[in-house]
UniProtKB/TrEMBL annotation:
GO terms for biological process: glycine biosynthetic process, by transamination of glyoxylate. Keywords: Aminotransferase, Pyridoxal phosphate, Pyruvate, Transferase. This is Serine--pyruvate aminotransferase. The keyword Transferase applies. GO terms for molecular function: alanine-glyoxylate transaminase activity; L-serine-pyruvate transaminase activity. InterPro entries: Aminotrans_V_dom (IPR000192), PyrdxlP-dep_Trfase (IPR015424), PyrdxlP-dep_Trfase_major (IPR015421), PyrdxlP-dep_Trfase_small (IPR015422), SP_NH2Trfase/AEP_transaminase (IPR024169). Residues 38-339 form the Aminotransferase class V domain. SUPFAM superfamilies: PLP-dependent transferases. The keyword S-adenosyl-L-methionine does not apply. Belongs to the class-V pyridoxal-phosphate-dependent aminotransferase family.
Amino acid sequence: MDEAPAVGELSPPDRTLMGPGPSDVHPRVLKAMSTPLVGHLDPSFIEIMDEVQDLLRYTFRTDNKWTIPVSGTGSAAMEAAIGNVVEPGDTMLVPTNGYFGDRMASMAERAGGEVVTVDAPWGQPLDPAAVEAAFDEHSPDVFGFVHAETSTGVLQPSVPELTDIAHANDALVIADSVTSLGGVELRVDEWGIDVAYSGPQKCLSCPPGASPLTLNDDAMDKVLSRESEARSWYLDISLLEGYWGDERAYHHTAPITNVYALREALRLVAEEGIEERWDRHLRVAGALKAGVEGMGLEMNAPDDFWLPSLNTVRVPDGVDDGAVIQHLLDEYDLEIASGLGALEGDIWRIGCMGHSARRQNVSYLLAALGNALGEQGAVVDVDAGLAAMSERF
Ligand SMILES: Cc1ncc(COP(=O)(O)O)c(C=O)c1O
């Protein structure tokens, strides 16, 4: 290319983010991202690393020493977890009740593991009895489950029951907490979770780029006594330990700005209080759900397993789901998302996460959605929806 491209100043639209992530980023996090860099081995950065690790432990509700932000998106933390804990020849049990169980399976296979499944329909959580039966049949070494399934809007209940089954069978448990960390009750230590990974762009309201991961001593013992090296050099936890552990030695250049951002996002969690934050998500998303149902729409997830951070709403008959999404984007600068995988075309996915979990976002969403559905000729009662929402608040 001879001529310099005529690219103008960066000016993306000013969206309200109510999809499955990213969520609206808190202004304090954006401000932290404009802080000048220091080197990734600068003594001041090492102090910042300690602070981020402490804040992550608080948010995960864990005392695990091995608690770090992995450079990359949630899938990087996911692959660090699975690719290190699963060794060639291991068997990993994964769920089939959503999109992200399939991703766990792909990663376990690439790590050289054999994959077996525990089944539940999309839109339902795992039944502990089915998990127990799968353990009896396959004796897996590792069990993975998705705490908050972003594709179906289902929250996995009875986590301690699942981890008890795994531990009674000498297996390690890996929990996907990408859509729950910082928004939905999650207690890593108390619930017996050995490894949990997450993403920053959901309930932590931080841009993607540095993703939380925690491992307890049992999981770390397995990782550090592997017979073969982890297949990924970049995500090898035994090497990352050199940087995030006591040594603080170079492995790769940490994404400093993303670590700044995560620190501020986690500081906001600590200021609010983790339990108060879970309560806020319940309260605000409860009003969103009441509003959607008050308008005459139907939620996809059963009430008992409803996931406050990700609300799945059934597309009414005769309505074009994509046209509604486009209308919200064009007319309201408002993002929601379509269904994924088996639920594509059947549902919308409406996030209520972190800084987006605010009353003003919910009333804006309900009014805009009502308008978009009206354009499609659907009969919905927006006033009743807004009244139901207000009542819940
Ligand atoms: C449950 C779950 N797991 C894993 C991921 C992967 O995270 P990322 O897209 O940040 O790589 C996502 C992303 O939406 C998710 O919702």
